[in-house]
Amino acid sequence: MSTSERRQLKIGYSIWPTGHHRTAWRLPEAVNSGTTDAALLAKSIRTAERGLFDYFFIGNSVKSDPHSTRANGNETFKIEGYTLAGYAAAITERIGVVVTINATYSDPYNTARAIASLDHLTHGRAGLNVITGVAGSHEAAANFSRSAHPDTEDKYDWADEFTDVVYALLGSWEPDWLLDDRATGRFLDPAKGHRIDHEGKFFSVRGPLNVPPPPQGRIPLIHAGTSERSFEYGARYADIRFSPYRGPEWNRRYYDDIKGRLAAHGRDPEHQFILPGFTFFVADTTREARAKYREIQRFTTDEYLPHAVSDFVGIDLSSVKPTERVLDVIDPSALRPTLTGADDLAAAGNTWTIDRYTGNKLWAVELALEAYGGDEAVTFRDLFNYIANFPGNQAPVVGGGREVADWIEQRFEDREIDGVKVFPPYSEYPLEAFVDLVVPELQRRGIFRTEYTTSTLRDHLGLPAAP
Ligand SMILES: Cc1cc2nc3c(=O)[nH]c(=O)nc-3n(C[C@H](O)[C@H](O)[C@H](O)COP(=O)(O)O)c2cc1C
């Protein structure tokens, strides 16, 4: 297979106000002016475009949580997505621009109108990330005149109908609506715009949209979620699934599960991409990268909590001292899978986020040790710092450019992932280092583009032409 025919990585970039690691912003060199700093944004988005990324991803949050103990320094603040998308569109030429909306608190007409407008202003570079909000978390509801966040079934019933209406509106004008007939004075053909006359459980929408049909035809949809309903939603609608990363075994099984659901919807598994968030510590040398990771981990001020370590590993470690070495106490091979089938997992009361595919927490310990470079001297305090700063759905990867590229390539070739969504731990060095040290390695291996040869997000991703 020639280089040009090889399956290609998809790479997104997401900026968090003070980075995606909980304590890295405390570094003297970190730039913490975040997503309200137009100059920082311009520089970083252009860096991602210099790295030929597929898209710039704008995350979202509509809750107010000034006291969050999990918060990164500036995480409480999330600037409004379409506003940032318009700015990103104006300062770039080729990179895709993806906006996140929480469907639960959004209106389909406004959403279709905004994303169609963005698609026009970017000449077909817009993408829509649809999430539903975490069940049981009611902070956002209080900002939207609601008393509670809906449960999983209700919020996905809403999201399904919401998405159908958005895409019906986006398709409500035929492409040949424009007459521009100066002789007769007919500018557009009103017969080409169609009412959608939607009457559903949640929405009543007439249409058509008051924005011309988007250049991409069908705007790529991204989705993240953990429930069975999320998996079904993604199988119907998503072009990209934003996934967790929990180790090779877990992610291979996740990948097969997610892709295996597409055929029932008449979809090609090669046309949906699974991308985990990716936080990394990369430097010119392995030694430097590891030293930086250690330096950042040491900023952790949290009091050592034996129960947090016990929960994380899945065995009782309450009598262990923080100074003891992990490998003196835990034999990772003793944590090998004991549960296999879905029934076993359900009987054991495991939540899928941890154990759905592997039936143990070996992955957690392995990933932590890997982050410290396989260092035999990793103590329980180090492990606790890792947990305290754990980016939730990701595994931090630490190393020189070649090692980080090896990590990505191996998981890509093993069909655990189709690419990564780059979440730098802080601004600004890590993104620049990724572009300068990791991207050239990926290009050399023939798994990432060496120039933009396409101009729309659909085409960057290699999605088939819209039906
Ligand atoms: C990998 C991953 C990343 C996510 N990122 C965000 C995010 O940036 N903003 C957000 O509001 N929710 C985010 N979520 C939450 C989900 O989008 C979703 O709203 C939540 O998981 C509830 O859906 P569920 O009940 O299907 O799990 C993320 C979830 C996952 C698994």
TrEMBL record:
Cite the entry's keywords alphabetically: Flavoprotein, FMN, Monooxygenase, Oxidoreductase
A Gene Ontology molecular function term of the record: monooxygenase activity
- Tell me which residues make up the Luciferase-like domain: 27-300
Tell me which EC number(s) this protein carries.
1.14.-.-
* UniProt enzyme class: oxidoreductase
Keyword check for Flavoprotein: yes
SUPFAM superfamilies in UniProt: Bacterial luciferase-like
Domain of life, per UniProt, equals Bacteria
> PANTHER family from the xrefs?
ALKANESULFONATE MONOOXYGENASE-RELATED, C2H2 FINGER DOMAIN TRANSCRIPTION FACTOR (EUROFUNG)-RELATED
Q: Name the family.
A: Belongs to the NtaA/SnaA/DszA monooxygenase family.
Q: What is this protein's record name? A: NtaA/DmoA family FMN-dependent monooxygenase
